[in-house]
Amino acid sequence: MGKTKSGKATTGADELLKTIFQYIVKISNERDVDKLLVNLADMGRDLVSADRCTVWLVNREAEKIWSKVAHGVDRIEIPLSKGIAGHVAETGEHLVINDAYNDDRFDQQIDIATGYHTRNILALPIEDSKGEIIGVYQAINKVSGNKNFTKKDLEHLLLAASYTGKQLEVLAYAEEIKLTQREIILTLAETGEMRSKETGNHVKRVAEYSEILAEAYGLPSDQVKLLKDASPMHDIGKIAIPDSILLKPGLLTDEERTEMKTHTTLGHDMLKHSDRELLKAAVIVAYQHHEKWDGTGYPRGLKGEEIHIFGRLTAIADVFDALICKRVYKDPWPVDKIIAMFIESKSKDFDPQVVDAFLKVQDKMIKVSVELDDTIS
Ligand code: C2E
Ligand code: SIN
Ligand code: SIN
Ligand code: FE
Ligand code: FE
Fold first, then answer.
1. Which of 104, 139, 173 is the last residue of a domain?
2. What is the number of structural domains in the chain?
3. Which of 172, 202, 232, 306 could be bridged to 302 by S-S, CB 3.0 to 4.6 A?
4. In 3D, which of 251, 306, 180 has the Cα closest to residue 287?
5. Is residue 272 in contact with ligand 3, taking CB distance under 6 Å?
6. Which domain holds residue 164?
């Protein structure tokens, strides 16, 4: 209503609040770190009328800061020791630099590489609840007014930074745990497979097959991703099976087969103590990948949908790989024999819907088996 000076100021604050509210819903519901970074950057850009804005996350171990600047573009990273953003991550300073090229801390290499011309920069740290710097908010090139960043802009970005710290902390922590988990799992799974050389790529192929199958079956994308990360663990229990059995060139005796079957319960026992989503999924595939749809599988003789969908999907991925590849104890099967076997075993060994999914994507799976062939790599 007011056309007075103070009325104008209120309008400014209103605009600011409007901008923040526009983003707040998006941001507080975002569970994906990459998307959150892009959203936060967009908010910062609008708040201070910058041409570009980047939210960097600090990775102290790698001595880098990294970010995701746009959807569909890869993450970018720069050393902590380089440039303005790195400087802020190290020192926690709040910087308003209106002549970038006359500032020693500015790294012109980035402009040279991108062909962009940086005039001015606003940068400040994002802190977690303990006051540790976990990221940097960086705005580049003011586009309105006299095209210089002001103290007001700094305050506005600071507001955004203090609001986002908590949100980033939670997600960045979750991200770190996920990455750690994935590393542990791949390392363990590869250790398990290393002992039988010719199946060196078995875990990687099973990850790819299970992803292809899960997608064709229609699992939601987060579940597809989870299974892809967890399925390499299906045979982790084989770590505890002696070489004399694991590497035996011929058929197993009944006694040896009985011992071999314990790789499922061993895998379950090794992993069962974790609360983490990924390890819980790994427990399921390790425990259930040899169960059969008609209840004749092992170790528990689960039947139909008593078997978790992750187990039903990994079962087909695993057997497909065992048949299409050479094993110490068997030669590869021709593809038509494999297809015929799956059709014949539909509703006996395997979930009929997963077999149908397999029949739709068999070509993709064969392609993976060729690309990740053990004899090449
Ligand atoms: P794996 O080599 O990864 O095989 C996984 C599954 O693929 C097998 O589970 C089985 O369901 C299927 N499969 C493999 N080869 C054949 C085959 O020639 N015909 C048919 N119809 N299915 C096949 P399974 O039987 O529970 O075996 C689990 C694991 O035990 C195998 O994992 C392998 O490491 C070992 N194993 C099984 N049989 C033998 C054997 O005769 N000799 C040796 N050395 N190991 C064996
Ligand atoms: C820097 O932090 O010096 C790099 C600025 C930019 O991203 O262009
Ligand atoms: C478990 O919780 O023991 C794994 C899930 C299952 O296989 O039932
Ligand atoms: Fe197995
Ligand atoms: Fe296997």
1. 173
2. 2
3. 306
4. 306
5. yes
6. 11-173
Whether 179 is in a domain gets the answer no
CB-CB contact of 184 with 278 (8 Å)? no
Q: Which of 76, 107, 109, 140 to mutate to test the pocket of ligand 2 (most atoms within 8 A of CB)?
A: 107
Which pLDDT does position 239 carry in this prediction?
Answer: 75
Assign residue 15 the CATH number of its domain. 3.30.450.40
Q: Which residues have a Cβ under 8 Å from the Cβ of 226 and sit 6 or more positions away?
A: 277, 278, 281
CA distance 289 to 308: 9
Burial category of 104 from C-beta neighbours within 10 Å (exposed 0-12, middle 13-18, buried 19 and up): exposed
Band of the pLDDT at 13, cuts 50, 70, 90?
A: low
> What CATH number is associated with residue 304?
1.10.3210.10
Question: CB neighbours of 260 closer than 8 A, spacing ≥ 6?
Answer: 241, 245, 246, 252
In this predicted structure, what is the pLDDT of residue 228?
A: 93
String of DSSP letters for 195-253: TSGGGTTHHHHHHHHHHHHHHHHT--HHHHHHHHHHGGGTTGGGGGS-HHHHT-SSPPP
The Cα 306–Cα 295 span in angstroms is 9
Number of CB atoms found within 10 A of residue 36's CB: 25
- How much distance in Å is there from the Cα of 301 to the middle of ligand 3? 13
CB distance 318 to 310 below 8 Å: no
Report how far ligand 4's centroid is from the alpha carbon of 261 (Å). 8
Say whether both 169 and 201 belong to one domain. no
CB count within 10 Å of CB 80 equals 19
At residue 118, the pLDDT reads 94
CA angle 43/46/51 to nearest 5° reads 115
Q: What is the mean pLDDT of residues 209-225?
A: 97
Distance CA 204, CA 372 (A): 8
377 in a structural domain: no
Same domain, 246 and 164: no
Give residue 221's pLDDT. 94
- Asked about 197 being catalytic, the answer comes back as no
| Amino acid, single-letter form, for residue 191 | T
Does residue 183 form part of some domain?
no
Place of tokens 């250790």: 191
- Give the model's pLDDT for residue 157: 87
Q: For 326-335, how does the pLDDT look when each residue is reduced to its tens digit (9 = 90+)?
A: 888 889 999 9
